[in-house]
């Protein structure tokens, strides 16, 4: 059994140049890396060391006030890695795009803040990543760790470079939803990854679109028929779609096991399961609740529960999914009892913090109506799958392998085929010129299901208003 990764030794190859007395600087941190990712069996060395700088090392600088590593584009992060750009920043630290001079490939390096709790979380993540890598044959489910090292008191984890997160893709695409066939491919891979982790007795606890990355950054532009009525000049007639549906999970800093001590709160707010909010304890099913919330967001373009407060969050759940089960309310933790009245009813809207909060809850649709608003074919199967993933009681919630056997995946075998979406610049220009003609196409040719629903609504409106027809906006 592999030992858990320990701190890397610190050697003298990466130090600032010697300063003549009496102006002597305090000795800086320095780091050493090991290409195979394994830790040698010797005791921890001193945190400080002295020596001449190795060629290619940047000048030593103090970290900023938040403990982030200070760098410049083009300099080296150890002689092996050259910094190309900054890819992102988060609570944990920064992610840099770097060139690996040994492997001649571009990698992503996560540089963790030089603060104890983040360093400890990074060591846990390295442990999980190495465990996943040993079992993930082919490396298709989770991001692959290439290397790790301790550099100037920053844990640095080297990853394969992937594409944007699903959240970033949605954001840069004006939060337009993905086609249902593409959502099915994402869902299948996501559930496979979750099932893989659960079979290794690992719980991710922080599943969200930000932690699901596309393998490729390539995308194509295709016409978006939902925006036929808009002007072509503002570009809203076209939307971006990824060329490849391949995705991988990232960010295992919060991953835990079934038998470890569980913190009271886990998961990012929008994707947090009801048992966590009620203080009932949590386990593997909390990941499946997050998957359900993610799938709704991919279909609609918006987070299902956009809230930052527990009572409002529970009220949103009841608006979308129905009332909470009484047996869960009765067992709620003391910290959650204040959200309920004596009759075990949620204390809403009486305890709402603002009118804005009340409107945020009231505007939500029931789950079936919400899905029907954004999905044409496969809507029934998707609704049934989501109702299984978003069951309040974690004991009744679908597990990952069960969800993969759902008819949403087995009944409709259509796969995401990006080749049929590819268009040349000439074709795109031609489509822009033909837009007025396309806008005049019958709605039932573009979206038959919605057209039939429109016909029913029109007949009902005609009956109610004595024959005065209402002009209804159509959308696919």
From TrEMBL:
The keyword Ribonucleoprotein does not apply. Keywords: ATP-binding, Kinase, Nucleotide-binding, Serine/threonine-protein kinase, Transferase. GO terms for molecular function: ATP binding; protein serine/threonine kinase activity; protein serine/threonine/tyrosine kinase activity. One of its GO terms (cellular component) is nucleus. Residues 81-409 form the Protein kinase domain. Its EC number is 2.7.12.1. It catalyses: L-threonyl-[protein] + ATP = O-phospho-L-threonyl-[protein] + ADP + H(+); L-tyrosyl-[protein] + ATP = O-phospho-L-tyrosyl-[protein] + ADP + H(+); L-seryl-[protein] + ATP = O-phospho-L-seryl-[protein] + ADP + H(+). Signal peptide: none annotated. It comes from the Eukaryota. The keyword Acyltransferase does not apply. Belongs to the protein kinase superfamily. CMGC Ser/Thr protein kinase family. Lammer subfamily. This is dual-specificity kinase.
């Amino acid at each position: 059994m592999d030992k858990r990764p320990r701190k890397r030794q610190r050697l003298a190859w990466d130090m600032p140049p010697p300063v003549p007395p009496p102006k002597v600087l305090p000795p800086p941190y320095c780091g050493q890396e090991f290409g195979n990712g394994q830790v040698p069996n010797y005791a921890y060395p001193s945190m400080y060391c002295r020596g001449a700088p190795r060629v290619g090392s940047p000048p030593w600088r103090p970290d900023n006030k938040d403990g982030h590593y200070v760098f410049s584009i083009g300099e080296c992060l150890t002689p092996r890695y050259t910094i190309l750009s900054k890819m992102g920043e988060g609570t944990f630290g920064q992610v840099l795009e770097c060139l690996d001079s040994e492997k001649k490939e571009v990698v992503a390096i996560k540089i963790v803040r030089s603060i104890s709790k983040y360093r400890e979380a990074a060591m846990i993540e390295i442990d999980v990543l190495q465990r996943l890598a040993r079992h993930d044959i082919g490396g298709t489910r989770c991001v692959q760790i290439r290397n790790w090292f301790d550099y100037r008191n920053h844990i640095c984890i080297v990853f394969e470079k992937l594409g944007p997160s699903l959240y970033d893709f949605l954001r840069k695409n004006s939060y337009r939803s993905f086609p249902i066939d593409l959502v099915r491919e994402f869902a299948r891979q996501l559930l496979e990854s979750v099932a893989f982790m659960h079979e290794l007795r690992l719980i991710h606890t922080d599943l969200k679109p930000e932690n699901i990355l596309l393998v490729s950054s390539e995308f194509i532009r295709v016409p978006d028929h939902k925006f036929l009525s808009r002007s072509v000049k503002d570009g809203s007639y076209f939307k971006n779609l990824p060329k490849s549906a391949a995705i991988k999970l990232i960010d295992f800093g919060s991953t835990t096991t079934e038998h470890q001590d569980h913190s009271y709160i886990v998961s990012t707010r929008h994707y947090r399961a009801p048992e966590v909010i009620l203080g009932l304890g949590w386990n593997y099913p909390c990941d499946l609740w997050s998957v359900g919330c993610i799938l709704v967001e991919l279909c609609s373009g918006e987070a299902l529960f956009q809230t930052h407060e527990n009572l409002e969050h529970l009220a949103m759940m009841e608006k979308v999914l129905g009332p909470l089960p009484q047996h869960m309310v009765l067992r709620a933790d003391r910290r959650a009892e204040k959200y309920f009245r004596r009759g075990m009813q949620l204390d809403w809207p009486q305890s709402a913090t603002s009118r804005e909060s009340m409107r945020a809850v009231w505007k939500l649709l029931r789950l079936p109506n919400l899905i029907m608003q954004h999905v044409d074919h496969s809507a029934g199967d998707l609704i049934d799958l989501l109702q299984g993933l978003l069951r309040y009681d974690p004991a009744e919630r679908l597990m990952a392998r069960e969800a993969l056997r759902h008819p949403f995946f087995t009944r409709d075998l259509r796969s995401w085929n990006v080749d049929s979406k590819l268009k040349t610049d000439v074709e795109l220009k031609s489509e822009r010129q033909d837009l007025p003609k396309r806008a005049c196409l019958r709605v039932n040719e573009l979206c038959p299901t919605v057209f039939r629903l429109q016909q029913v609504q029109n007949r009902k409106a005609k009956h109610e208003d004595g024959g005065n027809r209402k002009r209804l906006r159509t959308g696919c």
